[in-house]
Structure formats: structure tokens, C-alpha cells
Amino acid sequence: MTPAEQKKAAAAKAAEYVEDGMKLGIGTGSTAEEFVRVLAERVKGGLRVIGVPTSERTAKLCTELGVPLTNLDDTPHLDLTIDGADEFDPALRLIKGGGGALLREKIVAAASDRMIVITDATKKVAMLGAFPLPIEVIPFGSLATVRRVAEVAKAYGCEGKIARRADSYGEPFFTDSNNFIFDCSFGRIPDPDGLARELNLIPGVVETGLFIGIATLALVGTSSGVDIIEPK
To answer: Which residues are catalytic?
Structure first.
């Protein structure tokens, strides 16, 4: 199977974990959108669920396809979140945020009993860091914040270019919460747990794309089917 077909296979498998009456967190990105399409077909067939989208983009797709939605204010406890990942390691530590929704994705996942990650086989790595780590930063004093990010990262064995994300017009990219994202090209992150902990202590850092101890299962589309991976 191609990577696109692997994503579809993982999304279809994830839909098997959705039970009638569930309150779902619904992720952002190309693989999560495949899941929304599968979920919408089940809803048309009579499945009763309600979802909390992790981005305006996901909310728009759900509305178009007829997936009922709510929000965390009205539904603060969720049964399951299904979302993609940009990378994951054998411990199911993730890098997320390639689509720019990392803050809402983490809030929704943390409100859920379980998080299932759906990916293609290219996202599985031995060590995180090949995919640039997104860090969401408030615009005020952002360069001072990023300078401190670089200092902390270096102390954890991470060095590389840190660049503010731009939109398709070359202007600064803003998240749905009106923050900047800085993408950190570290190449390798030897201690994701320690780095995540220290980065979150920096004033001005809203959240990082390191999801530690959150995912409970990964469904990985491969050339021969879907692998089910639990954290080691």
C-alpha cells in the first residue's frame, strides 16, 4: 500500500474502536481527516456519537459530512480521542503540530480516557526529532522566548535551526489561538521527557508538540495491513 492507502487503512481500523454513544476527540491533519470520513459514514448508518474537534479545519469537515459536534465547555470529559502524529517512538511519545493545532490537540487528548494514534509506517522512528518540533509561543516577546528555548534545548543535547512558521503567503502563521509556531530542526531528541518538562517552564511558551504519556495505542498502516502498537 502507498502511504495514502496506509492512512486510510489505519483510519478505518480506528473507527472499529468507536462505540455507540461515545464522546470523541477528533484530531487534525490528513490522517485524522480520513478518520472523519469513515466516521461520517458510520454516523449515516445510525451510529450515535458526538465529537470535539481539535481545529477549525476539522470542525468544518465534520460539519460538512454530518458528524455532530460539541465543545469541552459543554462536554469536558471524553471517552476517546483519535488523532494522527508526525512522529512516534517505541514508547508512543509523539511529535505533533505539523498542522498547527498542537495546543488544542493536547487539551482534547488530556480530557479523554484514551488516545489512539493513527499513522502510516513512515511516522515510526527509533528516536524523535527528524520531524521539526513545533513549539507554540505567544507573539509578545517571542524572540526572547525562542532564545531561551534554544538555551534549554542545547542543555538537552538538541541544536539546530529554529524558525517561525510562515503561512502560504509568507506571512507569520497564526494558530487558532492566535499564537506563533516555531519549528525546531533538532534532528534528534535524546531526552524527550526532560526537554518537554523544561520547555513548558519557559514564560511565553504556550505548549510544545511533544506528547508524552498521552497516547495509549497506535494503529499503523503498513504495506501489508495495520499494526497495533502499545507503548513499551
So the answer is: 105
